[in-house]
Amino acid sequence: MNTNVGVKVNRNVKDSLFRRIFGTDKENALSLYNALNRSNYTQLEDLQYTTLEDVVYMKMKNDLSFLICFTELNLYEQQSTYNPNMPLRGLFYFADLYRQLLPENESIYGRKLVRIPTPKYIVLYNGNERDMPGDMIKLKLSDAFEKPEMSHEFEWTATMMNVNIGHNKWLLEKCKSLKEYSIFTGRIREHSRFMPMAEAIEMAMRECIRDGVLKDLLEKNQKEVKNMCLTEFDEEKYRQICRAEAREEGLEEGLKEGRKEGLEEGLKEGRKEGLEEGLKEGIHAFVALCIEVGQTKEEVLQRLQDKFSMTIQQASVYVDQYCK
Question: What are the two backbone dihedrals, phi and then psi, of residue 279, each rounded to the nearest 5 degrees?
Fold first, then answer.
């Protein structure tokens, strides 16, 4: 069954590393399925890819979908940022998949019940652990309803599983490729705290090749993998910065109000200690926010100088205090 008939491929859109590992290698995909479902399928012909090539989010192709024995329709997505809208995205995606899977001569308007593969939607999360400290979350479409619906007659869920190292150990131990993927992306994220992203990716690649983690893939496809990772982590940082800027606007408004109130209070009391203390707290919060979204020390120093009219020596004092 050709599920991509009439679907155009957008070749300007980048593949993700997750798709490269699991969306082109049936052994890896079947291993991931078996791990998630605690099953023991061995026949690769039981698995048929159904990923739609034109479904795109944030300039990245959607990750992976496939049929097992034509009875289960599995959609697995990798996410590096927490997104409560995954059930809605999954609903749209599955609707497109079912349209492609149904034979042209099958009518949904007749008296015959049209049988469809059972859907299963898994989101594999490997982003900041502060956004998802636990192992698993059940995201529900009903949480987005404008009017609470108490009968639960309509529901769609996305099961989000944390695949950072240290979480869901049983899953990572059962799927070697997923574990190695998590090790590699985890090392990139760790190194990027102290160096530019391109250098962090290169260092993580060298370490993983040395340690036998995704060794064949990395040795044979270093340039391709680097470009994939640069695209993925740039999109992740873009989303983080968008959220941080929104929080920063709120912080600035709070600082303005705090300065005003602190100044009034200081004039009344004949002192400025309250204003100075409030400003210090605001600056510390600003530094923490910049570091949280992955900005380098040099970037934070520059932003402090621009925003608070500091000298580089004054800015360094705040950054060094926070980074201790």
Answer: -65, -40
